[in-house]
Amino acid sequence: MTVLPNPRKNQFTKREIIFTVLSIGVFLFVFVQHFYQVASNAVDFPFWDDWTFFPNDSPTWAFDFLNEHRTVPTKALIALLFQQNGWDIQFTIIANFVIFSLTVWVFIQFLKWACKNGPTWAHILVSTCLLSPILGEVHHWGIGSIWHFVIVFGILAVWLLFAGKSVLSQIAGVFCLLLSLYSSGQGLAFSAVVFAIWLISEAMILFENEKKIITKKTITSAGVGLVYLLGLVLWFEGFRRIPSHAEPANPWTIEFFNYFGVMIQYGFGFPQKLALKAPWIGILAYMALTVAPIAVLFWEQICNNLSISKKTWALMAMICGVSGIVFLTCYGRGNFEIGTARSGRYVYFVIFLIPLSVALWVEIIALKGHTFHQGILLIACILIPGLHFRHGLDFAGYEVNQKARLRNLSIIADYYKNDGPHPLFLPDFWVPLDEYLADAKARKFSFYRKIRYHETK
User: Fold this and answer.
1) Distance of alpha carbon 120 from its chain centroid, rounded?
2) Hey, which end of the chain has fewer CB within 10 Å, N or C?
3) Sign of the dihedral through C-alpha 61, 66, 69, 71
4) Is-contact 381 123, C-beta < 8 A?
């Protein structure tokens, strides 16, 4: 029976130490620049969907749907911050970036665990693409933690389910999977796909066991699986499609494939004009980078009796889970205007596919006994961040958003002073604000308190 190679010995050559130090330096340089832009341009004022996350006293508020999403962890965070500071959105934006930073750190640690044939410096450099300027939309919203919670709880769930050997790790893994599910609608796709792959891997391991012994761990797996399924059923309670949204795009329609192609290309760092003109290039890129390594692994299993390790199963589970998010997004938004496929909140998940797929390719190359995986990694470490930062550290989008928030803040300040027009709508938001503005005044939200403070000075 062929098995994946043993992880390389925990030895660091002088070259690896130098490369690791350099990669950390490059990563931190980009990270500090990005964090500075986020922090210096943050404004304590709601923007777009931030308005719809005003906390209320309803006991079910944290679990209620917003559009197609249950966002329990983010609502819990907002409720906590509201108690502390009236939900200071400027502070929240910075806190969200800290959560994002922890998410990236956990992600890199996961890559180091799952891909032992890839050196630390490579995982760090390839993951630099997660700091791409195209994700500005995720970082300038007060509700940006939504997307970070989906990923970080998802990573922890996969890690615990596939690495853990104890009953407790399985219970914790399913709990994290449920947290990912209840973080956003994207968590529905991720958690369901990961759960299915975990069950398949457990069944295959049991099948490969010659004695076919049903252990205590097997019984626990079935028990925690039922808990997840119960959580999944409860998630759908009260779900409804948003009437104002376009009809979903079925997976066999051209709209679905075009949306998918644009999302993939933009997330992979391809030029924007190319993504809109030739979406099919994105489909080919996805097939080559993401689908091909999984196909190779199963081919080796069928033809050469390959036994896939738990770590490789974990990598595949992450890739398929994130792909599930992309597919569900294309299904739900495929009939929207094609330009929305470039939205940061959608592309955010696509970018995670890059380091994951590179890691899986490295494992396959090492599996075949080839020694050129280091060269492949070096090329990937130059090409991938190069595509995302080909225009330099262009974070101008944060300044644009800051100006929009300040403009809106001025309109609302005039309204509260009764000197300005009644703002039924703000220039960049489509929901009537009467109730939100009255609520902010009555409950003294942070931005309202600051407006009143400046009035009295």
Assistant:
1) 22
2) C
3) negative
4) no
| CB contact at 8 A, 107 and 355 | yes
Instruction: Give the pair of three-digit tokens for residue 209.
Output: 């066991």
pLDDT for 145: 94
Instruction: Report the 10 Å Cβ neighbour count for 404.
Output: 18
Residue 398: C-alpha distances to residues 96, 377, 402 (Å): 15, 32, 6
Q: Which residue has the tokens 């004009």?
A: 273
- Alpha-carbon span 425 to 429, nearest angstrom: 6
Q: Which two tokens stand for residue 369?
A: 């006994």
CB–CB of 162/311 below 8 Å? yes
Average pLDDT score over residue span 358-378: 71
Nearest CA to 322 among 165, 120, 130, 140? 130
Structural contact between residues 355 and 123, judged by C-beta atoms closer than 8 angstroms: yes
CA neighbor of 152 nearest in space, from 291, 321, 323, 361: 321
What count of other Cβ atoms lies within 10 Å of the Cβ of residue 255? 18
Q: Which residues of 339-374 are buried (b: 16+ CB within 10 A; e: fewer)?
A: eebbbbbbbbbbbbbbbbbbbbbbbbbbbeeeeebe
Average pLDDT over all residues of the chain? 83
Q: Please state the pTM of the whole predicted model.
A: 0.89
- The CB-based long-range contact list for 194-198 (8 Å cut-off, 24+ gap) reads 194/154, 194/157, 194/158, 194/161, 194/317, 194/318, 194/320, 194/321, 195/225, 195/228, 197/313, 197/316, 197/317, 197/320, 197/321, 198/161, 198/162, 198/317
| Cα dihedral 198/200/205/206 (nearest 10) | 110
Distance CA 287, CA 295 (A): 10
Could you report the per-residue pLDDT of 11-45, keeping only the tens digit for each? Answer: 567 777 888 888 899 899 999 999 999 999 999 99
